[in-house]
Amino acid sequence: MYEKFFGLAEVPFKILPDTRFLWYSEQHKEAKEKIEYHIQQKDGPVYLSADVGLGKTSIAQRLSDELKADATKKVVYAFASNLKTQNQFMRFVADEFDVKTARSFQDSQRNFEEYLIKQYEKGITQVLLIDEAQNLPYDALKTIHHFFNFSTPNQFLIQIALFGQTELQKRIHSYKSLASRMYPVKLRPFERKETEDMMQFRWTVAGGDKLPFDKEAIDEIHRLTRGVPRDICKLANEALLHSMVNGSKTVTKEFILSAAKDAFEEV
Fold first, then answer.
1. Over the stretch 97-108, which tens digit does the pLDDT of each residue have?
2. Burial code of 32-43, b = ≥16 C-beta within 10 A, e = fewer?
3. Is 53 left (phi over 0), alpha (psi -120 to 50) or beta?
4. Cβ atoms 128, 160 nearer than 8 A
5. Which of 1, 46, 183, 247 is deepest in the core (most CB within 10 A)?
6. Rounded CA gap, 241 and 246, in Å?
7. How far, in Å, CA of 2 to CA of 251, rounded?
8. What CA–CA distance (Å, rounded) separates 233 from 244?
9. 219 in helix, strand or coil?
10. How far is CA 22 from CA 58, 77, 205, in A?
11. What does the DSSP assignment read for 81-100?
12. 210-267, pLDDT tens digit by residue?
């Protein structure tokens, strides 16, 4: 790759959700803090919905890592499974929390409720984070809604945060009694300044100094990607390769345009 050419320790624009490279824009800080607040207050479930590539999974993983460091919390971070029935989803959640399951939904539910009460008495908060939650079928949402019955007069016994694409909001709002109990959080694409700040942050984490993209190049990255972080990373990565192949340590608008043809099929 181009690390040696640009004097880097590692690749700065990988699209993997490495939490070390998660740059907190003001909206990302706000989203994470709002989710944390509701988990800490134990006052209700929350969901984060956003378009593909805006950083949902990175926030979910960062929250999971930070909450797991707290000995007073038992955290499960899972991806939504295509489970068709209430019983299947109940067994899935119980298994994730190492709770004994039963053949019937009612028995598995009873076992899980008893587990939550015992953990509450021990002072341990149970936290369920579900990513790709737009894939949850109706019966899974119905089970989540039932979890709200597991509560004391002043707090829920299990704290739930769902992370998903914009379809998640539509699915939740089609279930009015569920929507009325959940707090929404959203993310939007980056503005031009946020795009540059995120790129500089990742460049620094990777061991670089001054970002080698000139102003017009960053303008073009923002225009072509519409401020979507994952697409910014894809395009910046390809542009650095094009720049290296051409022996240039400055990434110009021309390299962005040529790289876009490799990064995005539609360009």
1. 999 999 899 999
2. bebbeebbeebe
3. left
4. yes
5. 46
6. 9
7. 13
8. 17
9. helix
10. 7, 18, 10
11. P---SHHHHHHHHHHHTT--
12. 999 999 999 999 999 999 999 999 999 999 999 999 999 999 999 999 999 988 865 5
Pairing outcome for strands 125-131 and 73-79: parallel
26-186 homologous superfamily: P-loop containing nucleotide triphosphate hydrolases (3.40.50.300)
pLDDT, one tens digit per residue, over 153-171 is 889 999 999 999 999 999 9
Tokens of 229: 């972080």
How far from each other are the two terminal CA atoms of the chain, in whole angstroms?
A: 24
Instruction: Quote the pLDDT of residue 244.
Output: 97
Sign of CA dihedral 78, 93, 67, 148: positive
CA–CA gap between residue 29 and residue 48 (Å, rounded): 13
Q: Identical fold at 3-9+190-263 and 26-186?
A: no
The dotted CATH code for 3-9+190-263 is 1.10.8.60
Give the ranges where the chain is alpha helix by DSSP (H): 3-6, 26-41, 56-68, 86-96, 105-121, 138-147, 167-173, 176-179, 192-205, 215-225, 229-245, 253-263
The full set of domain ranges for the chain reads 3-9+190-263, 26-186
Q: Is 16 helix (H, G, I), strand (E, B) or coil?
A: coil
C-beta of residue 23 within 8 angstroms of C-beta of residue 198: yes
Q: How far is CA 180 from CA 32, 138, 156, in A?
A: 21, 16, 15
> What is the percent of the chain with per-residue pLDDT over 70, rounded to a whole number?
99
**Distance of alpha carbon 232 from alpha carbon 209, whole angstroms:** 19
